[in-house]
Amino acid sequence: MDINNLPDDKDALKDIVADYHQQLIYLQEKLNFLQKAIYGSKSDKKPKCGSKETWPMMPGLVEMETEVETPQEKTITIPEHSRKKRGRKPIPKDLPRKDIIHDLSGEEKICPCGVELSPIGQEVSEKLDYIPARLIVNRYIRLKYACKNCEGAEDDQGAVKIAPMPEQLIPQGIVTPGLMAHIITAKFVDGLPFYRQCKQLLRLGIDISRSTMVSWAMHAARVCEPFLDLFKKEIMLGFQVGIDETPVQVLDEPGRSNTSKSYMWVFLGGHPENPTVLYDYHPTRSGLALDFLQDYQGYIQSDGYAVYNDLGDKPGIFHVGCLAHVRRKFMDVVKLSKKQKHKGGTAQEILNLIAKLYILEQSFETRKLKPDRIQEERQEKSIPILNQIKTLLDERSKTTPDKSKLGTAINYALNQWDRVVRYTLDGRLRPDNNLVENAIRPFALGRKNWLFAGHPNGAKAGAMYFSLVETAKKNGLEPYAYLRHLFENLPLAKTEQDLKALMPQYIDPEVLPSPTAC
To answer: At a CB cut-off of 8 Å and minimum separation 6, what does 461 contact?
Structure first.
């Protein structure tokens, strides 16, 4: 606005000053938040300024404080629990042992009285040693046979016979299931790019190029492709599907620039006792979730991204929100405060009430309540707390500027409220989508090392491997042992039942060998 053309009306001037003041507050908050994001702590840990409690079911959160209740508030009694004393974990018994004997000298075995000492026992101290990995070469020796009596005969009775080569994951390559499992585990579990693995192998005396490694991984991924449809069927069988997505840069995406963002989607569902994690690559952030769950009936749980709204409008689908995302918005407000030791403010009040909800959830887990009982207690204890939060949100929304950080948090919570409280309707549901975020975190951590995918086919192969290893981990399987078992037996699988038997959801962990025995 041109300051030379300001209106003469005092009320109009006040309105202009008020608008600029609100904009100044908004820009200052935004600047503080960006500075906090760049230079501040990334944890959701709250400042120490009162009683400390452990916040359950919130990854990355170490401690929190709860507001001191007034005498008029209802007191919630949480059962006591015991905590195991921490100490050094024992060395696994299946690791090989090497005995190093330390004995006395001949002179030291003689007692001052002149009699030789008799052994009465021993003391054993165990210490871990490390032996660098070593490569071995498997020689497949196939014996040939021929009939000397038929040698030179015109018919083929004297033809040479030789034992067939066993089925191989990559028939023309030198890679074995063990080496393939190691390469995939290092890349998609440990986040070690292929070029670093090449350097490691070179130190062990073998020169394998990065392009060869990529070729092996792409070939194995094509062999594993049938698992994608099987995993999707497993997810559709569950009562709930959790959804999340994270960006990934793909360099050679057709029709798009190298700076365009593609997305890796994650779906978590299936039977609660045998969960399934499915990664799916898509060049955009819209459309995939709706297509993927086209025929699904049940609960879906997600954050507040607008693309998920269409899912909630479909008949038979009940959209559940994420309380953790609501909490995160108010944590951003608290982090902006320079006086973090000061207890008060709307954001702090909301966080304290959310804390009570999670303490209740922890008590349900501690007491191992069944879903029906959890639903009853949520209706009795959680709903009143949620009503307190809603009342507070409605009141403060009238006096808080929409563009302020607090106003953004309040509006987000109000817009998502109907979905956020829906978890109280079914005891099997969780108040947040953290399990899916935990499943997508390994991809985000690995992305910091390998940065991008070179081609859409590489991104799809990565989605396949992440689906296998994350589902294996969810079902209590050690990733390397599972992948080795899979690559050894996958060439023999001819039917859908054979493939299903190799899925991590249906393999007993006891069947797989220990990694030290592989």
So the answer is: 217, 218, 221
Per the structure, how many domains does the chain have?
1
Residue 350 has pLDDT above 50, yes or no: yes
What b/e sequence results for 141-175 when a residue is b if at least 16 CB atoms lie within 10 Å of its CB, and e otherwise? eeeeeeeeeeeeeeeeeeeeeeeeeeeebbeeeeb
Q: For residues 108 and 52, what is the distance between their CA atoms, to the nearest angstrom?
A: 58
Residue with tokens 């921490």, as numbered in its chain: 86
Distance CA 13, CA 8 (A): 8
Q: Three-state DSSP class for 363?
A: helix
- Exposure on the CB side of residue 107, measured as CA atoms within 13 A: 0
Which pTM does this prediction carry? 0.76
| Spacing of C-alpha 156 from chain mean position | 60
Model confidence at 438, in pLDDT bands (50, 70, 90)?
A: confident
Please name the residues in contact with 93: beta carbons below 8 A apart, sequence gap of 6 or more: none
The answer as to whether 378 is a domain residue is yes
Question: What are the pLDDT digits (tens) for 14-32?
Answer: 655 655 665 666 676 667 6
Instruction: Give the DSSP H or E segment for 445.
Output: helix 434-450
pLDDT of 488-502, one tens digit each?
A: 999 999 899 999 999
Asked, for residue 471, whether it belongs to a domain, the answer is no
Helix axes 10-39, 323-336, angle to 10 degrees: 100
269 belongs to a structural domain: yes
Q: Show the 3-state SS of 397-425.
A: HCCCCCCCHHHHHHHHHHHHHHHHHHHHH
Listed in sequence order, the DSSP H helices in 313-433 are 323-336, 346-366, 371-377, 383-397, 405-420
Residues in the chain, total: 518
Give the domain range for residue 373.
238-440
Angle between helices 456-474 and 434-450 (to 10 degrees): 130
Residue 393 near residue 414, CB atoms below 8 Å: yes
Q: Render 452-485 in DSSP notation, one character per residue.
A: -BSSHHHHHHHHHHHHHHHHHHHTT--HHHHHHH
Q: Note the Cα 361 to chain centre separation in Å.
A: 21
Q: Is residue 208 part of a domain?
A: no
Amino acid symbol at 305? Y
